Amino acid sequence: MKTSQEIRKKIRRIELRTRHLVQDSLAGQYQSVFKGQGMNFEEVRPYTPGDEIRSIDWNVTARTGEPFIKKFTEEREVTVMILLDVSASGNFGSVQESKREIAAEVGALLAFSAIYNNDKVGLLLFSDQIELFIPPKKGRVHNLRLIHELFYFQSKSSKTNIEQALNYLNKVLHRQTILFLISDFLDNNDFSKPLAVTAKRHDVIALPIVDPVEEMLPDVGVITLEDPETGEQIEINTSSASLREKYQQAAHRRSLDLKHFLAARRIDTVPLRTEEDYLPTLRSFFARRGKHYR
Q1: What's the maximum distance between 2 C-alpha atoms anywhere in the chain?
Q2: Other CB atoms closer than 10 Å to residue 91's CB: what's the count?
Q3: Which of 14, 72, 165, 258 has the largest count of CB atoms under 10 Å?
Q4: Which of the following CATH numbers is that of domain 4-33+76-293: 3.40.50.410, 3.10.20.30, 3.30.365.10, 3.30.70.370?
């Protein structure tokens, strides 16, 4: 468990790192991928040959006796919502950082990216209940509150229910929003229906987090595994090659099932790992998606 001072230093490092990214390569990629949802009226100006006839402002034209057209600019502002799973399974980590710590760092980077691009950003922390909801807003003070909650919030429940989080957002979000869903997706509940509804209304990006031990057991003899969300324990002998093989196969099937589940709903996926740097993965995602949108 990191101290408050260590967390504050990490937040500052992420802010500086993000500012460099946003001002450098990530800025253009972010803006090209996440565009506004309409056009804003800017002004009227005199008609010049070649202008679109449909843009003529007939009221001003009739009043002045000269043709004028309406000038519009693209609405750049978008709304970003970060959904972060704070259930107990996120506390697991076999390397330097846990899944929850990686999730908080990625959430902070996305929040800083949105703020630096003058977008609104909000936060939903969930377990099997709505732990915290902060509506989307702008501003540094608002953003620092989000960052603080990402790193310091202590959940009341240990279990997971993604369905409930999506149902809640489907009720409270009325404007089209970019949703970053950060979770290990270790949820036994069926959330396919609310996810389908959410994906139709909003732009959903899933960021599943996995730890290497969740994919492959180390050969360390007899150990006791505990489900952090239920407290259920089981003793296994990791020296068994067949057991490790079955464990690996089951993990592989679970990963493929999630990948196909999200792809079937046309949801972009950004896989995160506790033992890998997430920045190249995020950069690659923005670059790949930016090409798709051009």
Answers
A1: 90
A2: 15
A3: 165
A4: 3.40.50.410
